[in-house]
Every structure is written in C-alpha cells, then in structure tokens.
Amino acid sequence: MSIALIVTVTLVMGVIFVNGWTDAPNAIATAVSTRVLKPNTAIGLAVVMNFLGALVMTYFNAQVAETISNIVTFEGAGNAAQVALASSLFSIVVWAVTAWYFGIPTSESHALIAGLTGSAMAMGGLSAVNGGEWIKVLVGLVVSTLMGFGGGFLVTRLLAKLFQGVNRRKANQVFTVGQAISAAMNAFLHGAQDGQKFMGVFMLGLFYNNLVEKTGNGFVIPLWVMALCSLTMGVGTSVGGMKIIKSVGMDMVKLEKYQGFAADLSAAICLFLASIFGIPVSTTHTKTTAIMGAGAAKRMTSVDWSIVKDMILAWVLTFPGCGVIAFIMAKLFVAIF
After folding, report:
1. Residues 6 or more apart from 169 whose CB is under 8 A from it?
2. How far is CA 124 from the centre of its chain?
3. CA of 96: how far to CAs of 122, 181, 303, in Å?
C-alpha cells in the first residue's frame, strides 16, 4: 500500500468525521430548539441514524456516490492523482473546521465538490471536469434551496390551517411525536446523502491505487467501505456540534413545535427524493432553508436575516474558496511529493 493511499484514506476518514461533527447536527437542530429532544438524546439519535442512513441507502442505491466519483477525472496525472486527491480533502478539513469555529453551518457536500474540482483542474485544467455530472450539482443546489424554503413555508401554513381548531396541548403532542420521527428521518437521510459522497471519494482513492476496478456503471462499493465510512460519520456526530445546533435551531429563528415539525418533514422529503434520483444535494442548505421557510410562514420578522446573510455568504464562498485552496494545495503537494 502506497504512502499516498494511506494519506488519502486517512484524510477521507478525517473529512467524514468532520462532516459528522459539523454538518450532521443540522438534522437534529430543530428538535433540540423546540425541546422535543434533549441535546444528548438528539445527538445519540443522530449517531445511530447517520450510521444506518449511510450504510443502508448505499447498499440499495449508490447513485449519489457514483455521481461524485465521476464528477472529475485525474486520469493522465500518474502518481500525482493520489496527491491531488489528498489535497482536495485537506482543503475540505480546513474550510469546515474554520466555519465550525465561527458557528457557521457550511456545506461539506459543496466543499467536497469544490475541492475535487480545484485539485483536478490543477492537474488537467477544465478538461478534467465532467460537465454533465456538474449539472446535477447545480440542479441539486437549486432544488435544495427552493424545496427547502418553499416546503417549510407551505407545510407550516398547511399545519396551522389544519390544526386551527384543535386544542393546543393535544396538537403539540402530535407535533412532538411527528418532529421526533422526522428528525430521525433527517439524520438517516443526511447519512444517506453525505455518507455516499465520501464513499465515492474513498473509491477514487482505491481506484488510483489499482485496488478496485471501475466499470461502465461506476464502482461496486464493498460492504467494508460502507461500514467503515458509516461508523466514522457516527463517531464524528457523537462529538457534538452544539455550536451549529445553536446557530441553526436557536439563533436564526425561534420555532414552535408545529414549525419545527414542518421544517423537518419538508427537508426529509426533499432529501429522500434527491437520494432516490442520485442528485447530490446539500443537507445543510436543505435543512436551513426549510427552517427559514417555516419561520417566515408565521411572519418574516421571525427570522434573524443577519444570521441568514452570514450563512449565505459562507455558502457562496464555499465553491471558490475551497476550490482555490485545493488548487493551490494540489500544486504544492505535487511539487513536494
């Protein structure tokens, strides 16, 4: 086993761990903010469901992993392909940890795509980027934003209408159960989406070291890769992530239980559809925009738009920022190694 492969696998595990640490808390943020689940209970739930989502969904449908593994090519770069791949992963860790420090929920999904693109371009220019697969990313960006916000807004209005004449205490009992279930669904689908993305990168590392073969249908992901990536994400989630929970679920907007249920349900539906059709969407974008929509459905001033502005700025900067870091690190790593 080459040193480059060891470094690549270590960095993949590191990125998956960071994803579970900084990104997975989005799935349970609303359930904590509405007091449906206690923080430790919610984190425990997220650990289990992230693990199951990454493992089970990949076993039955690995289209998201295939999209990520095909989005760029390092072919023709020789042994430098391993080094370039490692540099893209390094850039993701730097970007994600910096954002976590400031409590800003960035998208590791888009950081991954930007990192891969930047390092691939450092090796082969624009020809190293698969435009057809990149279109899926752009579609996913639009879909996750529109469906997230629109779904949160519409479901909140619908629930308010349906439960208008229902006793508040009884209604909250329904919303409490519903939000606990939908929070679990969000954690499961976060694992399904983000777990698969990093499995795709893992398989690229094995491929460039001639340990697996790539067919016309993509990679056949071994069960041990699924289990290892799923377990690493679960361990990362167990570390915590209260900074992200506070920013998304508490500071950005104060939600009532029916709004929290609406946000979780609409986000889960969007993530499920994207996973089935193999579209790599950002779980962060989907969940946070659903929360914005749920808050705005009551009144626009319910949302702290200054926090939203900071989040959007971080999202916009992710593609060029992480891409440039990966480009520079790829050039530097190849020169050194």
Report:
1. none
2. 27
3. 21, 28, 25
CA angle 324, 286, 197 (to 5 degrees): 55
What percentage of the chain has pLDDT greater than the value 70? 88
How many Å separate Cα 90 from the centre of its chain? 17
β-bridge partners, 253: 303
Q: What DSSP element (H or E) covers 48?
A: helix 39-60
Mean pLDDT across the stretch 311-336? 85
Cβ neighbours of residue 319 under 8 Å, at least 6 residues apart?
Answer: 110, 113, 114
Residue 68 and residue 96: Cα distance in Å, rounded? 19
Query: How does residue 225 score in pLDDT terms, banded at 50, 70 and 90?
Result: confident
The phi and psi torsions of 35 (rounded to 5 degrees) equal: 65, 25
CA 286, 291, 292, 294 torsion: positive or negative? positive
Determine whether 179 is exposed, middle or buried from the number of CB atoms within 10 Å of its CB (0-12, 13-18, 19+): buried
Query: What would the pLDDT profile of 133-161 be if each residue is shown by its tens digit?
Result: 788 888 888 888 888 899 999 999 999 99
The listed range with the strongest mean pLDDT (5-14, 48-57, 152-161, 269-278) is: 152-161
- The residues pairing with 72 across neighbouring beta strands, listed in sequence order, are 129
pLDDT in tens, 69-108: 778 877 655 567 777 788 888 888 888 777 777 766 667 7
Distance CA 201, CA 15 (A): 10
Q: If you average pLDDT over residues 5-23, what whole number do you get? A: 79
Nearest to residue 36, comparing CAs of 241, 155, 174? 174
Q: What is the per-residue DSSP string for 108-169?
A: HHHHHHHHHHHHHHHHHGGGGB-HHHHHHHHHHHHHHHHHHHHHHHHHHHHHHHHTTTS-HH
List the helix and strand counts (H, then E) for the chain: 14, 0
